[in-house]
Each structure stands twice: as structure tokens, then as C-alpha cells.
Amino acid sequence: MAVLAACGDGEGTESAPSSPGTSADSPSPRGATTGNEPTEPSASTEPSAPAETLVEVADVPVGGGVVLPDVGLVITQATAGELRGFTSVCTHRGCTISGVSTTIDCSCHGSKFALTDGSVVSGPATSPLAAAPVEVVGTAVTRG
What we know:
The protein has strands spanning about 55, 65-70, 75, 85, 100, 105, 110-115, 120, 135, 140-144. It has a four-stranded antiparallel beta sheet with strand order 5-6-7-8, with no helix packed on it. A three-stranded antiparallel beta sheet has the order 1-10-9, with no helix packed on it. Strands 2-3-4 form a three-stranded antiparallel beta sheet, with no helix packed on it. The protein is globular and about 50 Å long. It has a domain at about 55-144: Rieske Iron-sulfur Protein, CATH 2.102.10. The protein is built from no helices and ten strands. By secondary structure, the protein is an all-beta fold.
């Protein structure tokens, strides 16, 4: 198939070659299509891949949590069924959170953060941990 392109100011008398179904005498409105243009690929009808399991819900203690250093997250469950995710980077000096007791704990300088919202319980940190969206899918915690 040959393609021909031409430039012009639209005021000349030259006409562009027409394709079947179109007329050089009646130009299409700007942005209109003739039906011969390639179309955008349609959305895939394949099911999306299952979300990556971060941790099983059963492995996150109620009233505590777990540190997932490989993915940089802390998952907490302050009360049964209320799972939350936070970054595992302490806001004081960027150390990795070391563990979770009744608070999210950084052993570098002793900062402690709340299980429910990552707010500072005791410093030297002054900023809360950043929330990381997570969701429960079946029995697993995945990225939200």
C-alpha cells in the first residue's frame, strides 16, 4: 500500500487523492476518521495476574505487626481485621524499622510509631511513617 503525504495551506486548488468512501470535494471535519485508520488496541479481556502476596493475614499478630524488609514495608494489625501498611524507613534518619511490638520500632535511635496510623509515639522522629496501601485478598495481604 502506498502512502502519499502533501503539505499545503488549504487555500490552493490542489486536491489530495481520495480513498474509497471519501471525497476530495467534501473534506472530513478536523479529527474525523474515514474508517481506514489503524485503531487503538482494545483492552485485554484476559484476567489480570493475581496480586503478589506480601504476607498471610495469620502471620500478622493482632496488636502487633511484621516488618517485610524485602519489600520495604511494615504490616500492622492493631485490632483484628484492621491491617495497615507503612514504609519501613524511619523518618528520623532513614534507618530500616527493626521490629514491631505494641509500636513500630526503630532501633537506630529509639523512635516508636503507632500501629494504627504510623504517627510518632516517641522520638527523636517528628514525622509519621508514610502509609502504604495494602488490602486483604482471601487470606493474604497484598499491595493495594
